[in-house]
Amino acid sequence: AFINGLAIQQVVITKSYSHEDWREDLKRITRMAGAEGKPSVFLFSDTQIKLETFVEDINNLLNSGEVPNMFPYDERAAVVEAAR
User: Fold this and answer.
1) Are residues 10 and 44 in contact, defined by beta-carbon separation less than 8 angstroms?
2) Helix 19-33 vs helix 52-64: angle between axes, to the nearest 10 degrees?
3) What are phi and psi of 10, to 5 degrees?
4) For the chain, which residues make up each domain, given as ranges?
5) pLDDT per residue as tens digits for the range 27-48
6) pTM (predicted TM-score)
7) Contacts for 15-19 with beta carbons within 8 Å, 24 or more apart?
8) Going by CATH, does the domain composed of 7-83 fall within 3.40.50.150?
9) What is the pLDDT confidence band of residue 2, given thresholds at 50, 70 and 90?
């Protein structure tokens, strides 16, 4: 990643880390890679899996390129517009 100039993105899991925190971090990372066009690597290890929904979201992202219902309609429209 470093040699190719990619930004490494990680989430910091704490005791109080919630599903909402996860979604906000995932939104930030996908915005950076998509709308801002910054080549990135999302580094996530099995020790960071606090909830099964984390794995489901990553699976959806890898399989379809999006996470269902991650962005409300207005935010989604803004991200799509920024990516153009």
Assistant:
1) yes
2) 20
3) -135, 155
4) 7-83
5) 999 888 877 888 999 999 999 9
6) 0.81
7) 17/50, 19/51, 19/53
8) no
9) confident
